[in-house]
């Protein structure tokens, strides 16, 4: 089962918004939000809440890809998130999430008994490539127990 399939099966919001996982690797994840009438805002584009969920979902996919091998000893959790809306988004949009620190550095902190935090940056783009939003989600690996 791919990370996208896993998240679609276990995270109800992924199914609600019909998010599509186009790419998931330990360095980057790309997730698409189709154009859907029921999730449009007052100017005809995707609602800000749908775009936030898209960006957070992309960030979670890259975190799972990068740190899935650590799940037996730590749970990944978002600590905070910030989003900036840059341009009007119309039609389908996609979010590209990029891990902000080398995974090995994060795991080394976990190995040292720390609770590491690390950023994931997200660019949200329209079909024409214009960046409509930028997001940063800070994640942690909380040790189990």
Largest sheet: 6 strands, antiparallel
For the largest beta sheet, what order do the strands appear in spatially? Answer: 1-2-4-5-6-3
- Structural category is alpha+beta
- In terms of per-residue confidence, which ranges show pLDDT below 50 for 5 or more consecutive residues? none
Number of strands: 6
Helix content: 25-40%
Envelope shape: elongated
Gyration radius, in Å: 15 Å
Oligomeric organization of the protein chains: single chain
The helix tally amounts to 4
Q: Give the CA-CA distance, first to last residue.
A: 27 Å
Q: Beta-sheet strand percentage?
A: 35-45%
Mean pLDDT value: 96
SSE order, as H and E?
A: HHEEHEEHEE
Give an account of the 3D structure.
The relative contact order is 0.20. The protein is built from 4 helices and 6 strands, in the order ααββαββαββ. The two termini are 27 Å apart. The radius of gyration is 15 Å and the shape is elongated. The model has no long low-confidence stretch (mean pLDDT 96). Strands 1-2-4-5-6-3 form a 6-stranded antiparallel beta sheet. It has 145 residues and is α+β, with helices and mostly antiparallel strands. It has helices at 3-10, 12-16, 48-67, 103-111; strands spanning 20-24, 28-33, 74-85, 93-99, 117-126, 131-143. 29% of the residues lie in helices and 37% in strands.
Features:
145 residues; alpha+beta; 4 helices; 6 strands
In summary, what is this structure?
The chain is an alpha+beta fold and 145 residues long.
Question: Topology, pairings included?
Answer:
Layout: H1 3-10, H2 12-16, E1 20-24, E2 28-33, H3 48-67, E3 74-85, E4 93-99, H4 103-111, E5 117-126, E6 131-143
Antiparallel strand pairs: 1-2, 2-4, 3-6, 4-5, 5-6
């Amino acid at each position: 089962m791919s990370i996208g399939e896993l998240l679609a099966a276990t995270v109800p919001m992924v199914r609600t918004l019909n998010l599509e996982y186009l790419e998931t690797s330990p360095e980057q994840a790309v997730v698409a939000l189709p154009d859907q009438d029921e999730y449009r805002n007052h100017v005809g584009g995707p609602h800000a809440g749908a775009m936030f969920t898209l960006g957070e979902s992309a960030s979670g996919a890259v975190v799972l890809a990068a740190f899935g091998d650590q799940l037996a000893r730590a749970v990944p959790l978002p600590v905070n998130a910030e989003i900036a809306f840059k341009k009007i988004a119309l039609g389908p949009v996609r979010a590209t999430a990029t891990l902000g620190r080398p995974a090995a550095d994060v795991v080394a902190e976990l190995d040292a008994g720390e609770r590491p935090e690390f950023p994931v940056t997200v660019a949200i783009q329209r079909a024409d490539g214009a960046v409509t939003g930028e997001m940063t989600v800070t994640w942690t690996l909380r040790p189990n127990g």
